[in-house]
Structure formats: C-alpha cells, structure tokens
Amino acid sequence: MAATYAAQAPGEGLHPDLVPGAYKDIYVTVTGDSSYPTGGYALGVANMPVPAMEINQVMVANPWFDTAASPKQGFVAVWDNANNKVLAMAQATAGAADPLVDVTATTNLSAYTCTLRVSFR
pTM for the full model? Predict the structure, then answer.
C-alpha cells in the first residue's frame, strides 16, 4: 500500500489559476498508509493529483495529524527536497532535547494526513 495524494478543491486554499508567474500552486493532502516507508513518501509528477510537468517547490502547510485520536496526535512533516519525499519525524525521546528523527519504518500512518503547498507547472 502507498500514501495517497488528493488535491483540495478551489476555495480550500489557493486557486490554482490565480497564481502569477509561470507556476501554479495547489494544496495537496497526503494520507499515510499502514506501513511508513524508510526515508518517507515519494512525491513526483507521476503521483501529483493534477497534471504537472515539473514540481518547482514544496512547502509543508500542516503536520501529520490524526484528528480522530483523543488526545490529538501528530508528527512533524518535513519536505526532503533532495529526494522528493515527505517525511514523518518525531522526537527520539519524548520531552528530551533530542533532534527529530525519521519515524520508524512500517509505522502505521493510515489515520494521519499532512498538507503540502506544491508549486508546479
């Protein structure tokens, strides 16, 4: 199974036809799967939810978040530009002054979504 990518409808963020310049912007909601892959989820033109020739820039708009959990749970979403992947990161030891680390491979993120702002043409 793999992560899914869905474009938000116009009015839910940026309207893709109103961005000045050569690129268009769209908010993309990424839904994790039941087995997080080592190194993150790939995002390229092949799995963009709209036709695209090239991805110019990706910015994280919202972290990985499970809105159904009580209390709310989440991970930090990070865009890896060198490898074109969105990562889920967490603190190695809760409450410690440790750097963030990639979530363990095979972690179930199927209840988590994150939002990316993608500039493309």
Answer: 0.79
